[in-house]
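Quick start: what a row looks like.
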Amino acid sequence: MVELRELNVGYATKNEKNIILKGINARLEKGKLTCFLGRNGAGKSTLLKTILGVLEPLEGSINISGKTLNEISANERSKKISAVLTDVVRIEHISVEEFVSLGRIPHTNWRGSLEKIDKQHIENAISICEIEDIRSKIISELSDGQLQKVNIARAICQDTDLILLDEPTAHLDVSNKFKVFEILRKLAIDYKKAIFIITHDLELAFQNADMLWVIDKNGDMQSDVTEDLLLDKKIIDSFLTSNFEFDYVSGKFLYKRESRVSFQLIGDNESTYWTKQALYKNGYGVDKKSNYTLKIDSKSKRWDLFNDEKELNNFSSIKELILELNKLFFPEFI
């Protein structure tokens, strides 16, 4: 649906071009949720604004349904692309339903009156975002989570094939983050929308995105199926520091402190993941080459500690494990 060809984006003045991202070749397709990842200042919002038509491409082209962006009028563009941006909209004295109905502006007649089809789109958007219970509330009275769902409902009501979202889960609690992504997945799968999300919620992106666009540590953009990029393993380096590692089994980032003693872990994925978390928190490490091994039996809730082949001790909980490890290796701190 949307194709970027040899696209350079940035800012132009009379004297020079400041190129932030260059040579971009990528596609946004109906029925796919695409997440755009990269460090702050890498150019993500600049690219989004260029796709929206707020900024002119410095070089290359953006093609939407076979036409270049310049060939599409502003009104026609508003029927193809809707956006939920980072600016918080809190309009005084307007209800949720009235705000959602603003999405129909590109489709209404010159008087702005709502026809039957417009009201159907309003009801559908309210239903998808599950905001029926707040439809009569005033926008300024909403929580951040409620307001974000209302903003998404307004974009849905606009009935475009492409919806762009800039950090839609910023400042939301965990449950609302998951709800927002659930809504966006539904739009992609059930309504065949092309969903494009700029986000710093990497783990949510890995769980939900069909495609990833990633600005790597060299400032180049890569795009591919999410799982292919993750299995390649190189792309994660763009987000890691010396204090973090990425667990490719769980799809989560783990914080590492400087380790005093390291262990090999043998057990099922769930048990080894949470044992690793506890070890890292307490200054221990995980290393497949270590002489110390923790064998975990999740069914019997048992952790067996070995030095080479010799069993040193066993524990019945992570709490007991950490306490006894501290006694064994660092008794001076107990």
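That is the whole record. The longest strand covers residues 17-28. The chain has a mean pLDDT of 90.
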